[in-house]
Amino acid sequence: MSHTAHIPSHRKPRQRASKSALRAGVAGGFLSTIAVAGAAGPAQAEPVTQTIEMPTIASGFSAAAAASAQATQQLALDMEKQADQDAAAEKAAKAAKKAHAEAVRKDEAEKKAEAAAKARAEAEAKERAERASRTAERTTLSASTGGSGSSSSGSSASASAPSSSLNVSGSAASIVAFAKAQVGDAYVSGGTGPNAWDCSGLVQAAYRTAGIDLPRVSQAQSTYGTQVSLDNLQPGDILYWGGAGSAYHVAIYVGDGQFVGAQNSGTGTVQRSMDYDRPTGAVRVL
Predict the structure, then answer these.
(1) Which position among 37, 49, 76, 201 has the lowest Cβ density within 10 Å, counted as fewest Cβ atoms?
(2) Which residue segment(s) compose the domain that 190 sits in?
(3) Cis omega (within 30 of 0) for bond into 194
(4) Are 236 and 169 in contact (CB under 8 A)?
(5) What are the φ/ψ torsions at residue 33 (nearest 5 degrees)?
(6) Helix (H, G, I), strand (E, B), or coil: what is residue 65?
(7) Do 167 and 278 fall within a single domain?
């Protein structure tokens, strides 16, 4: 045995032969297949007589689009309906608000009319009560003075007529002119002018034009000056109703048997005949 037999060879194994065989086998099989197909092809070919329909999705898309359009249209109708309902509700609310305001205005007008009517009725009732009170006061005073005073009153009244305002001059003229200028002004309890008066406030303001400062209230004014007979009056004299020192009403004699006074809230400041409501007494300041 050679001593070199166990020495392995350093040469790489040959792989080219096996790869070549594999390639040759594959190529041979492929060519065989072509050959068989070529031989059998002309004899076995048949025309295609059946059409295969592919499934379509157009109908599904159409149905979805129709459903979407219908939903959109329904939504638009719902929105339009809601808008109409909202507009109707707003219109109804405005109408209700207007009706309420009209009802409130009408109610206030009725209340004002009722208050005015009540005020007129109260003023008339007050005036009647004051007139009755003055009449009763005069009756009481006449009874207290006795029959001599009443028996002589007729002759004295006929012998002495009230002075005419045509002869007024000086301070009396100023007082009378001021009093007449206030005729038509309102009566307000505690009023001192310039457009609303109570009885003593008017008398005080009239005398102030002549530089005379009278007391503020009728009770004090009825004793300020000299007591004079109602049959011997002069323009500018202060007339009073009630007792001297306890008078409840005063006015200014302006001549010709008339006086100017702030009577009450129903009549305001007026010029009237003494026969309308004859006073109890009078005082002369000038």
Answers:
(1) 49
(2) 159-284
(3) yes
(4) no
(5) -65, -40
(6) helix
(7) yes
